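USER: Please consider what follows.
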Amino acid sequence: MAEDLMRYDMLAQEALKGVVRRALRIARDQGLPGEHHFYISFRTGAPGVDISPKLKSQYPEEMTIVLQHQFWNLEVSEERFSVDLTFNKIPEKLVVPFSAVQGFFDPSVQFGLQFQVDGAAAKPAVAEASNPAEPEPKKPEGDGEVVSLDAFRKK
């Protein structure tokens, strides 16, 4: 078989990140319709990711945020998105380049995408900053939530 000099794998990933970008723009412009909400996992150490030192120390490799009920100031550009969330009642602004995104999942319709990111780890954690409608995950103290990423991949 010939070598793929076109890098169709990378072209396909970039096209599918366009789906994530468009979904975030809809959420920004119109709010989340119906029961839609998003789990977005990303590499915290990827170039361009801007999160607080506290979150970085809690999630040194990867974190997953949930955009559902309580998020503010969602901004979306061609290269990145930013959003304000609260973790244990502390407001945080996160800036995430699309190149750092590893996964996108909307459990309301069982739609998900996974992306290859250089240096990706195998065991991510989920940091949820919204008030979820799903009762399955365990609730820790405060308004955030940490569960295994496998909890929503198997839905």
Remarks:
- The first strand starts at residue 38 and ends at 43.
- The domain at 8-153 is CATH 2.30.30.220 (SH3 type barrels.).
- Confidence is low (pLDDT under 50) at residues 120-128, 130-155.
- The two ends are 37 Å apart (CA to CA).
